[in-house]
Amino acid sequence: MKNRDKWITIAFLIFILVIPLVTVVRNLLPSQQENELTDEEQAILEQNGTLANGTQADTKDNTENSMPKETGFAKLQKSINQFTDSLFGRTKLIGFNTELTSLLTGGTYIESTQTLMGKNNMFFYKTELDGHPIWDYMGINHFTEEEMAAIAANLVATREHLAMRNIEFYTMCIPNKEIIYAENMPDTIARVNKISRGEQLANYLNENTDLVFVYPKDALMANKDKVQLYYSTDSHSNQIGAFVNMQEFFRTVYGTHAEIDSVRFRTDATDYSGDLVMLAGLTGKYNIDTVYAFEPESADKAQYHDQVLLYVGDSFGGFLSQICKGYYKEVYWEDARDFQYNMLDRYQPDVVIWERAERYCEVFQDPIFIK
């Protein structure tokens, strides 16, 4: 018995020491490093904006002087995060751990720092490194009156500033998946308040300003039983969900509206696995989503606007801007983290839409459109 325990201890020590040692060696020899993710997986995660520890510091045009100073603790934490993200065999270990916890719980639970397994094979984003979607769902991170007033002041100032350039300005906040598919959330996640932070902000702005702030929760709820609007394995809406979101924008701004069945969506794949199962190491097990692609030529010509649209948003903006291509003369999409004021001169837009997912809605207080 003592010999067995000794060998188990030795094997465990070798395991926990060898992985960091191999990681250090691989980091010192970058030319010999191999990506843990495939190129396709890396591209999807980058496109969706769900890579762990991603920050606004990654933008291509930011300068050192424009970034806040990091504290010693923040630098240490960042170094630790970078090291753990590059651990040798990290994704394989994540996948093994996830599979093991799923097996031990009869497929009702997975162990993951960023992915939450819900009901009906639906996965949710539980990160604390990329917003707080679970806090939004629970209703425990409401804005203060002062915070909402600051957001309102910035949006009003932005609208007035862009109006001097003859640019229309509108704002959209896309509900988190957890809000729309609450029935698939685990029962262990309790909701303290069913009014989420995004809805709270929308109500405040509608009651206290004349801003156009589109929070399409009601439209999504009204359509979700007709067809799936968010991927089961991904944190984002699909293109049908994006269509519903943009039609709510058109209804609010222009007074026009089209139903889902009035346009065409092409089926591009039926075995898609999204960012959430990638982060959990379960890509090969849950290839269950259908990918729809909007066909812009099927858009109602009565909704067409002979204008140039600049769509500034986050990872939801890719699909949303694709929908807009059926309704505007020209459409340009820029990630809000990369947006620079001189892009207004480059694109010469008639319309600017500033969009953020609900988990990012505090950034509406940043004056990115004001020089």
Describe the structure.
The chain is α/β, with parallel strands linked by helices and 371 residues long. 40% of the residues lie in helices and 14% in strands. It has helices spanning 2-28, 39-48, 72-85, 90-104, 133-138, 145-163, 177-180, 197-208, 217-223, 239-254, 275-279, 317-324, 343-347, and strands spanning 115-117, 123-125, 168-174, 213-214, 265-272, 289-294, 305-313, 328-335, 351-357. It has a five-stranded parallel sheet, with helices on both faces. Strands 1-2 form a two-stranded antiparallel ribbon. α10 (239-254) packs across α12 (317-324).
Quick gist of this model?
With 371 residues, this protein is α/β, with parallel strands linked by helices.
Shape: globular
Count the DSSP helices. Answer: 13
Order of helices and strands: HHHHEEHHEHHEHHEHEEHEHE
Which percent range fits the helix content? 25-40%
The percent range for strand residues is: 5-15%
What is the spatial order of strands in the main beta sheet?
A: 4-3-9-7-8
Please tell me the overall pLDDT.
81
Q: Main sheet, how many strands, which sense, barrel? A: 5 strands, parallel
**Could you tell me the number of beta strands?**
9
Question: What would you report as the Rg, rounded to the nearest angstrom?
Answer: 23 Å
Distance between the termini: 73 Å
Judged by helices, strands and strand pairing, the structural class is: alpha/beta
Number of domains: 2
Unreliable stretches covering 5 or more consecutive residues = 30-37, 48-78, 80-109
